[in-house]
């Protein structure tokens, strides 16, 4: 079975491929000849995932899924949220985003935060949404070299390491994206075993 993942983010593609069973072949936007930057103009994480999935289905005719992820920091009223990727500007630079986040939080003792991923799946003319969240806290400084985005600043609840200090397997087991992808895989398996 082949399905398109509406992304050209190499890190996300690696993470999701790592979780998929071997009988599901993942195609990227590049694989289907989609080189445009799909606009993410919705004001919610769900909305952006839906926009991306609908864009591919409408313009390329493929069943596909798309995800959007946001980091929601309680002390910042849920920011950066839907603007996580461009928190420090349109250049979408992870280092700049982390720098701004640490500046905004300062020494605020409330470091509680959550990561949220929503996957929108367009399959056989129907749309399905899957949501994964993980609670945690923002560290005072970066730790770890693995992962991407805000991973060096996010410590999942109950653990003493950031996502950037975990192996891909460890992160996939408990991350927001890992949880949403697990729901997606279970759904796809049930659909294709009928």
Task: Explain how this protein is built.
The relative contact order is 0.16. Strands 1, 2, 3, 4, 5, 6 and 7 form a seven-stranded mixed β-sheet that branches. The protein has 194 residues and is an alpha/beta fold. It has helices at residues 10-19, 45-60, 94-105, 168-174, 176-192; strands spanning 2-5, 25-27, 64-73, 80-81, 112-123, 126-138, 154-156. The protein starts with a strand and ends with a helix. 32% of the residues lie in helices and 24% in strands.
Q: Main traits of this protein?
A:
194 residues, alpha/beta, Maf protein, 32% helix
Q: What is the overall number of helices? A: 5
> What's the total number of strands?
7
The proportion of strand residues reads 15-25%
Radius of gyration using CA atoms only: 17 Å
Structural class: alpha/beta
The main sheet comes to:
7 strands, mixed
CATH topology label: Maf protein
The global form is globular
- Count of the separate structural domains: 1
Mean pLDDT across residues = 92
CATH class: Alpha Beta
Order of helices and strands: EHEHEEHEEEHH
For the record, give the distance between the C-alpha atoms at the N and C termini, rounded to a whole number: 14 Å
């Amino acid at each position: 079975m082949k399905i398109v993942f509406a992304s050209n983010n190499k890190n996300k593609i690696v993470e999701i491929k790592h979780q998929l069973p071997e009988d599901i072949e993942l195609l990227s936007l590049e694989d289907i000849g989609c080189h445009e930057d799909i606009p993410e103009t919705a004001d919610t994480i769900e909305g952006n995932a839906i926009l991306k999935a609908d864009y591919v289905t409408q313009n390329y005719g493929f069943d596909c899924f798309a995800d959007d992820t946001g980091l929601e920091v309680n002390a910042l009223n849920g920011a950066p949220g839907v603007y996580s990727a461009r928190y420090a500007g349109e250049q979408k630079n992870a280092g700049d985003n982390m720098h701004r986040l640490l500046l905004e939080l300062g020494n605020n003792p409330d470091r509680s935060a959550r990561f949220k991923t929503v996957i929108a799946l367009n399959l056989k003319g129907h749309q399905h949404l899957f949501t994964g969240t993980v609670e945690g806290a923002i560290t005072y400084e970066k730790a770890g070299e693995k992962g991407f985005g805000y991973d060096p600043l996010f410590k999942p609840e109950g653990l003493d390491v950031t996502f950037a200090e975990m192996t891909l397997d460890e992160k996939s087991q408990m991350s927001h994206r890992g949880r949403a992808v697990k729901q997606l895989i279970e759904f796809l398996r049930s659909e294709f075993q009928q």
